[in-house]
Here is the input.
Amino acid sequence: MGTLITGRVGHVVTKGLDTHDLVCDKPSIAGSVSQRACVFCGSRVVLYPIADALHLIHGPIGCASYTWDIRGSLSSGPELHRLSFSTDLKEKQVIFGGEEKLYTALCELIDHYKPAAAFVYSTCIVGVIGDDVQAVCKKVEKEKGITVLPVMSEGFQGTKKDGYKIACDVIAKLVGTGDDLPVQPFSVNILGDYNLAGELWMLSEYYKKMGVQIVASITGDGRVKEIRNAHKASLNIVQCSGSMIYLAKKMKEEYGIPFIKVSYFGIEDVSDALYEVAKFFKSEQLEEKARQIVIKEINQIAPQLAEYKNKLQGKKAALYVGGAFKAISLVKALRMIGMKTVVAGTQTGNAEDYKILREICDEGTIIVDDSNPNELSSFVKQTGADIFIGGVKERPIAFKMGIGFCDHNHERKIALAGYAGMVNFAKEIYETISSPVWQFVKR
Ligand code: SF4
Here is the structure.
């Protein structure tokens, strides 16, 4: 662990060697070059999939990097979310203020696109120059007659996790403002599934077959009207607990809607996600339908998985992801295909998450919170990992180390959730690890 800077030692444990509790849930240490993104990025991630809303970023053009193809969150209808509008603040606005530019841009965009609602994101420079974003939103809302919500997400306020919370507060302002969707007794909202590569559509099919209605899929293929009606659902199913647990708790307090935490990655966890819903509604009929789905799907994919397991037996994976629930599922999914997790880390895990992660990992696994490229590279070297599983910021680390990379973040185009997703995952891992390209790279 010689690569750790002062203050980072507590954020890393090797199972079986270290006895200290992992330090987590803290702001990143200055100079550590954390893999975490900014507050604005956290808010943008959560709100991005609301497909019929206008998303206007008030700031310099660089903040508005989320465009058409950078995120894999798909929509079955409108695609306004995939456009990234910016007020493109320049020196003139930084000196004299950007409220006028924001007002003009907002009015023009609303007139042109006629969105169901508008979100206006405040970025670092706006926080510094002191534009009154809330007042402009209020004025435009009154003039145009649509909901215009300020997202006060100045990047310097904290971490990406704070951005999640700000976005949840904004969504909470929409929840409960509609009463125009019929709701059945077995009804749920899905929170924290981002419909990457259409994963939500696969999962919705399972729930539909069970007879469960999805009122709002808040963070994937989202619609303003459904979110307005989300308070009418009987249960909230939370997948990415890091980003959505705050909203789930808030909805429990305000509307008495209970929530369960699930994961849709890996056979074990996706099956549990179906059974848990049936259990919540105390319905034998739902349970039986869930059982039929699980048996059918597992029977279908078992031969393919067995083949991949044979080929991947003993290979080692390093993983570094946003939320801990995904890390926990990945450790189990990798074990199912014969692989060992040698490094497991997250950007936003909490003490409870890391306790579970520590329990399910093998002896010798390095568990790390809020890591950085230097640490991750040294862990890969130390453990001899064959593949790195992470997001866009981990990709160059893997390639520089001369090992394969599997994208398990928002940029990907391959569905990795559900039963079919498990086969896709195994296939991707196998094809990446066994690619002939690695013989030409110095590790
Ligand atoms: S840190 Fe500030 S300037 Fe950088 S992307 Fe985030 S909001 Fe924009």
The pocket of iron/sulfur cluster is lined by residues 38, 40-41, 59, 63, 123-124, 155 (CB under 6 Å). The mean pLDDT is 94. The chain is about 45% helix and 15% strand.
